[in-house]
Amino acid sequence: MHWLLAALGIQIAGGLVALVAGRSARLATLAGAVSSVVGCGMGLAGLAAIYWGDSASTFHVAWNVPFGSLSLDVDPLSAFFSLPVLVLSPLAAIYASGYLVPFRDRKSLGGLWFSYNLLTAGMLTVTLARNGVLFLVAWEVMSLAAFFLITFDDERQEVRDAGRTFLIATHLSTAALLVMFVLLGNNSASLDFVDFAAGPGAAPASLVFLLAVLGFGTKAGLMPLGAWLPEAYPAAPSFVSAVMSGAMSKLGIYGLLRIVLVVSDIQPWWGWLLVALGAISAVLGILAALAQNDLKRLLAYSSIENLGIITMGVGLAVVGFATDSFTLATLGFAGALFHILNHAMIKGLLFLGAGAIAQSAGTRQLDLLGGLLKRMPWTGAAFVIGAVAIAGLPPLNAFASEFLMYSASLGSEGLLGPSPTSIVALAVIGSLALAGGLAAFCFAKAIGIALLGEPRTPQASDAREPAGLMILPLILLAAGCAAFALFSPLVVNKLMPVVAQLTHQSAEATAILAAGALGSLAWVAQMSCGLVVIIGGLAVARKLLLAGREVTTSGTWGCGYARPTPRIQYTASSFTQPAVEFFGVLVRSRRQLKAPTGLFPRWGSLSTANTDMSKDLIYRPMFDSIGLALSKLRWLQHGRIHLYILYVGCTILALVIWYASVELAPDNARRVEAISQTTPDL
Amino acid sequence: MHGEGSIPLVLTLVLAPFFLGVINRTKAIVGGRTGQPLLQVYFDLFKLLGKGAVYSRTTTWVFRAGPIVGLAAVLLVATLVPFGPFRALVSFDGDLILLAYLLGLGRMSTVLAALDTGSPFEGMGASREVMFSALAEPALLLGLAALARATHVLSLTEMHRLLDASGWANEGLAISLVAVALVVVFLAENSRIPVDDPNTHLELTMVHEVMVLDHGGPDFAYILYGAALKLWILGSLVTGLVVPAGTTVAVVELGVALASMLGLAILVGLIESSMARLRMIRVPQLLVGAVALSSLALVLEFGGL
After folding, report:
1. Which of A239, A594, B184, B222 reaches 20 to 30 Å from A169, CA-CA?
2. Per-residue pLDDT averaged across B120-137, rounded?
3. A589: enclosing H helix or E strand
4. Amino acid A284: pLDDT
5. Which of A373, A379, A461, A542 to mutate to test the interface with B (most CBs of B within 10 A)?
């Protein structure tokens, strides 16, 4: 545990040094990046020490904040969710030290690095916190740090808008969580998580769960709660988008799982709700991603899709847990957890790669890119691996986790079992299949338009490989994707303690429950290795066949057209047009066509714009109507200062009366006493 | 792994090009021509393997990897599918998922290789291919899920074994719905009429053929062989479902399976001779129809509780 505390300390200290050294961009970068790498390294060492049993896993110190205590604990669930944080943050920091070079002259980097290290420290604390107040404080630190990171490039209007949207969304989420913790702590002496578990079940569990879905689902970016996400991820610097998508959004899932652990009396419909939300997010998320022409917006929507897939896994598991179908619960949790790791790696890789592409070519618009694989071979190859992986194709890692989820939903407690669980499982299978095909479509477009073919603009043609510091994390993450696929049974075995904790089963029972699916997964891994071997064999065979024969190069066959230009290539919009047309209602793509007219037409134009469905259909009308309703209270705001003082006076008087009534009421006197006993400084 | 499992694999590897030959011969006969030799595809493969190669200057390693990954994926799929009385070389619970996703990998590699050429025609074909397969995939997986629900097993080999005459007697309606859905998937995945016309000469209207325009020599041999294998594999999935394995005599069963494959080839040839391909915008509707049939089969299975 001391290692982990030291990790937090180093991060914050490094951030402060960077803040002080803000004038010197080099020094700030050095302090920020080194403290991030060292701090996260120590954090990993701390997890290892606890894993091998060499270190205490808990830490508890009183805190003179009402209901608060500095209570930290490392259980399997916390350790698991701190892994993406501790692995992705330093990699992104290394990348950032190259990525930020162009900003050196026009921006102070001190504040950026301070926020970045606070973000990491905040995320780590969220996973470890065992007290409601501490959790909320860490949650807020994390969210505010993220806000300052998102608005780093604040000269641009869309960045400021995105920051505002994020700030509103994250505070709505915190509001839900605040109410949730108040309900949980209703009957217990403190807001320590252990007291929730032990306390007499007072708050209605379902209400707590719904608030958790609202609060944590917003952070995870589930549709329709995650309307902030496609704004915020593209606006943030790419290494921040990588951490936000890879690590921070997962903490939403962490929160849900933690609440499922804390609350007793779990209902099957909770799982149905999660599966429904997950399925909606998965299918609508990937459809929206398909329509995007901005590379980072596309990745942002794909994050929604994957968080949806993870949520479907959790939902299946919750259904299984609530109905005593423990194979379903075990495999659902295992699939969701494995997909969390895989998605963290892949999406980290893709956002970092997208950042390198955007910086090199000067734009994120797919239709202005092209031919980058030749110009940026390492970045491009890593991006191709990431994109094939995220499309859920073998032999890469996301297929392995999706396979586990299929195994869960197909099994004897899923599709082959009794209804209604079998119908839920069927929904999962159908959504996974549809989202899988569409994801392949989406990422064929991302690779094909951005990296392959001929460059569509001079900037794309001049793009070059970025600095080595930016390539290294990409290669490490791509290697991780391949390794996690080929050794998937080993990885899933290591996840079993977390699964056992979530299902309240012993390690032996969990191993038995998962044995069948793990056997199948072993086959999948072997087949993946076989695929690699066959690919190698076929490549050698072709090489031998072509040895000594004439191998020439020429232009692409233009079907008889002799003067092709890069502009005749298929564009991102034209590539996805069939799907956007077919799923028209769900994609909300608007096109404006000015057709050429007249006998000798000179001019015509076609433009397409994609709007966010939940923003259009839910949030804009909602906030508009709230604004309209509140405008009726405008007479309160008249600008007369003496009346404002009267408001303040009335409020204080009302509070005094309320406090006195609480103090004097016989029922509550005991409770106040109890609280002041546990927190003597109150 | 099972010893007898190598038999379906060998049959697939050897007979797949012949299947294509039968389709071509059927079309020729119906069209009043003599047609190419039944073994023409073998001759083509042999000829292509003996040639050099021309690569577009635009292309990268993705283009060169395309045919290799595509063929490797289909070769692996060939190990998963049982044939007649023989179980597949590899079978495990959930192998049907791997089958669908390996086909997806093969498609992805072809599509990326097509986009790598920068040709607008190949981009067009790639776009159509991924669109159609995005709809064919749910139809395939839901159809297989319905069969899993009907037979209560999760591997293709076990499913094939249990879908005998008594299975048909009990679940006949659901199975026949799945069979129709799988035939549509079979035609779409293999770019046959009414989804795509393998004999068309106009690049604008092609789907699969236009994507491989720039491949030649051994690369094109890999693609051609991969396409033949895929046709055979999905075909044997359909015939294995429709023609139940009823007897216990292995030789008879093998004969029935081979005869039904021959029948399927002739059927495809007859379809291609008797109708034109659908308009591009109608194809998704056909595929959604297949998804609907698979779903209906599932509903029947759930109703049978």
Report:
1. A239
2. 92
3. strand A589-594
4. 93
5. A542
- What do you get for the CA distance between the two ends of chain A, in Å? 29
Q: What pLDDT, on the 0 to 100 scale, is given for residue B171?
A: 82
- The answer to whether the Cα torsion of A155, A158, A164, A166 is positive or negative is negative
Q: What is the pLDDT of residues A536-583, one digit of tens each?
A: 999 999 999 999 899 999 888 887 777 788 888 999 989 998 898 888
Length of chain A: 682
Asked if residue B69 lies in contact with residue B111, where contact means CB atoms within 8 angstroms, the answer is: no
Cβ–Cβ below 8 Å for B76 and A516: no
Q: Which of B68, B116, B149 sits opposite A416 (nearest CB)?
A: B149
Quote the pLDDT of residue A201: 56
Q: Quick check: B115 and A570 CB within 8 A?
A: yes
ipTM, interface predicted TM-score of the complex: 0.95
Asked if residues A517 and B90 have their Cβ atoms less than 8 Å apart, the reply is: no
Nearest chain B alpha carbon to A416: B149
**Residue A156 DSSP symbol:** S
The upper half-sphere exposure of residue B193, i.e. CA atoms within 13 Å in the direction of its Cβ, equals: 19
Does residue A676 register a pLDDT over 60? no
Residue pair B19/B231 in contact (Cβ under 8 Å)? The answer is: yes
DSSP one-letter code for A102: G
Return d(Cα A379, Cα A358) in angstroms, integer: 12
Pairing of strands A551-554, B53-56: parallel
CA distance linking residue B50 with residue A598, whole number of Å: 55
**B129 to chain A: nearest residue by CA?**
A441
∠ CA B138-A318-A491, nearest 5°, is 75
A77-105 pLDDT per residue, tens: 999 999 999 999 999 999 999 999 988 88
* Test the B interface: residue of A404, A410, A451 with most B CBs within 10 Å: A410
Residues of B in contact with A436 (CB under 8 A): 101, 104, 137
